[in-house]
Amino acid sequence: MLILPCLVLPQEVWSAKSKLDTLLHRVFSYPQNIEIRRVADTTSYAYMKSSLRVNRRNVFLMAVPTMYAVAHGGRREYIQESFNKVSFLPSGDYTTKKLLSLSTIPHRHVAMPTLMSYLTPSIYDVTMIGENILSPFNKQNKIYYKYSFEQETDSLVRLRFKPRLRNTLLVNGVAIVTPQDGRIVQVRLAGEYDMIQFRLFIKMGSGTMQAMRPEKCNLDARFLFLGNDIKAHYTMAYNLPKPVDTPSEDDHDLSKMQQLRPEPLTSYEKLIYGSIVKARETAEKDTTKIDGLSPTSKRMKLKTILWDMIGENVLTHINQKFGPDQQGYFRINPILNPLFMGYNNNQGFYYKFNIRGGYKFTNNSDIWLQFKAGYSFKLKQFYFWTPLIYYFDKQHNAYLKSTLSSGRRIKNRRLVNELNLATDYNPIWEGMQLDEFKDTYWDCFANYELSKHIGFQAGLILHHRSALHKEGFDLINKPRVYSSLAPKLQVQYRPWGFEGPTLTASYEQSLNKLANTNVPYARWEFDGQYILPLWNVQSLSMRLGGGFYTHRTNNDYFVDFENFRQTFLPDGWIVDWSGEFELLDSDLYNLSHYYARANFAYESPFLILAWVPLAGHFIERERLYFSALHAKNAHPYIELGYAFKTRLASVGAFVSTINGKYRNFGFKFGFELFRQW
Fold first, then answer.
1. Please, how many CA atoms are within 13 Å of residue 3, restricted to the half-sphere of its CB?
2. pTM of the predicted model, to two decimals?
3. Which is nearest to 353 in space by CA: 411, 409, 410, 407?
């Protein structure tokens, strides 16, 4: 009799676990059981409303992107509204187009646009909010969550979930699920990401077409940053009918919004609107009287307006659209932007700046221009990169591209060594920096994709390399400038299409003595790159390549490969924190007439530091690096590294060996703060 309860209890536990596994299996497989991805394009309309309350603010709030107007304004309550057109694509994705918008924030600015991603969740994807929050309703993330369930009604089940470790990428909450098919009816979840504490309610749509998409979202968010405390409430309603009188693009008519609101404003929201409308009317009257002010008052008024303009443009992005249908745009990053500051061993601390713009002619044709510049405080050098691209057939990725770049330093000790031998090691040559050249680079080429598997590039490349210490070259009767002009042909092959690896082969041969060029050469390069997606958001980045010169002259004191060169304008964690050498001296880039390289980087959200208590909460991504190089005087050069990314910064540590001996150890650092704002 005493043994019987012991036998029954494990059976009950096993039965509960079996029911939970069955329920989770149905939830995870629900997207595959419906035909949502085969439905034709559909169009719907959505309404968004938000209110902001500034509890505490200080001078640091002005440094937060899109928050200068809130930090500098005199009010503490704001409200924003918008009516949007939503287009659903067969892939399951959707795009939004703003038709009508209102904002009580000065200059109709939109504050904290990063919160909009919380109102467009994809709960069944691996990442449900942008590329960040790991969804508890995707099978790949099951290992990161604990689940339990209880009966809600005869036809509904309450599924609870909580993270197995405290990390900013994970959430906790509860979902209401129909156990028969695993369809999620609604979700309540909470978490903290990028200095935002949030609580999100999601009501999913009903029916085959809407079951994968939210019908309504309510978001309560709190932003805490260096003593600033801001609370926000957002409401997003989807699947609204098309209005009888469709507003024009990005209209700002209050009377139209009153007709389109799916629900009335609260008394608190009406109070905000009323007080700000009254203040604006008073301000407009004061503006019309500015000519009647005394000279001193007029100067103070204009001074305030001027400082508002300067402060806002220095600390926030400048975005502007133009053209009859808003098909043109330009964007200037703020002058004081911590994201553009970084550090690595070769360059020391550096700062960057970026301007870009474009114009869309048709859906198949556009043009865009970028100006990107940087300054290295350690090297005391300024460099820039300016590409201009004209797409004339986007369906075939057909474009013309012209790039101008300058400021990049290249060096080679070969000339100094030759002078030392010829002059019995006269120390005068060591202080002249004869091994350093400034490289001005221009290329122009056309690209065309015959299919998703093969493409071609053809064009011209010009290098103008001038010696930094010109007087030294005059003393030894050698040219100050070394220039080359070469046609280039490149073939790209993608064996699995655009989703697979890209293999390239390129050939350059200079046109000697044309346009005063004096560096004849012929060069081959081969390169292969692929990012292999692994389970959940893990990935393996791979790059293999090599190159060699088939023709060089004795007076060529440097070599310069296209795919093997030092990066002077790094772009951050996502773009260039893999596939590069972090500690390699600039001499090795321009010393050998051949090279063979291999770069591997494994990325995971939970690798090492993420499991450490307290500190692990802030880890978003981690990487392990392995890089190898075979070149002249490097047989081989090997580099190992580890890096992690947080909301504040990306930090990496690297160690290198050459020819089996320890070479050096160094760090890499880049700001990530507000990168997604």
1. 0
2. 0.82
3. 407
